[in-house]
Amino acid sequence: xxxxxxxxxxxxxxxxxxxxxxxxxxxxxxxxxxxxxxxxxxxxxxxxxxxxxxxxxxxxxxxxxxxxxxxxxxxxxxxxxxxxxxxxxxxxxxxxxxxxxxxxxxxxxxxxxxxxxxxxxxxxxxxxxxxxxxxxxxxxxxxxxxxxxxxxxxxxxxxxxxxxxxxxxxxxxxxxxxxxxxxxxxxxxxxxxxxxxxxxxxxxxxxxxxxxxxxxxxxxxxxxxxxxxxxxxxxxxxxxxxxxxxxxxxxxxxxxxxxxxxxxxxxxxxxxxxxxxxxxxxxxxxxxxxxxxxxxxxxxxxxxxxxxxxxxxxxxxxxxxxxxxxxxxxxxxxx
Length: 335
Hints:
With 335 residues, the protein is α/β, with parallel strands linked by helices. It has helices at 39-51, 67-79, 111-125, 144-156, 170-183, 201-206, 208-214, 252-255, 258-266, 268-274, 278-288, 302-309, 311-317, 320-330; strands at residues 5-6, 11-14, 21-23, 25-28, 56-58, 87-92, 130-135, 160-165, 190-191, 217-220, 292-297. The protein has a domain at 10-230 and 289-300: TIM Barrel, CATH 3.20.20.100. It contains 14 helices and 11 strands. It has an 8-stranded parallel beta barrel, surrounded by 4 helices. The chain has a 3-stranded antiparallel sheet with strand order 1-2-3, with no helix packed on it. A hairpin with a 4-residue loop joins strand 1 and strand 2. Helix 1 (39-51) crosses helix 2, helix 2 (67-79) crosses helix 3 (111-125) and helix 4 crosses helix 5.
């Protein structure tokens, strides 16, 4: 794989075999835009990220029930950036409305839902098109041909530029790619999986052949395992952290796992040698493999965002020996 292009503040990698280049670190909006950030705060976070070279901003229809897209869209309008200078994504599956006769609007990838959902995203965000659209989960009840045709048609109509999947199996990705190949449709170019030191097997083993054979790129989420790899959960869930929020109660058991927190503590010696935090080391490790096009960072403050983006310096200094030491300390607890 060619070396990623860079400037003084950021590295850029191609999205799989496509020609689109993404900043190796990007800014996500889950649990922050609208939930924690109003438009002013979101604008400041996005501007701070852009000042560091970030060009990719990740979103989803389901984040804050559509409000995250609205907040990001308004922030983009106020920032006034040229549309060619940034990449925006959104994801579809969960839907916003359901019940009664609205049986085609939740937990689906049928054509009716996808067409209407992307139109609604465009209205909320105030954008003419979305750069990347993802199928947020697989839908076993809709024929994969129907979903592939719908996603390809959205690109043909100019409402999106590229499409991909999120948390699909390797077999499902290959099946979608084969449908597109057979019918000369726009193929999926990206998968968005969870990837961190405790969640590695899918990316490193299951996806290995689809990455090699099909050129699928990866935009990965949760590089800090929900905050576990920041080290802040070693003594319980701090007030205001994700582990303390009612909306993320489903994460709490994993964040407070004693064995994993002990493993995180052991990473401190390597981090100290590199002159960085455990969080920066964990983020840099996630981006170390060239198959990862972009690592989506979440941050609840500008200070935290700047700290996480400083992992770029650590990434530039990582070598295979250090990576092997990091992995050895967490291998037994990884899945």
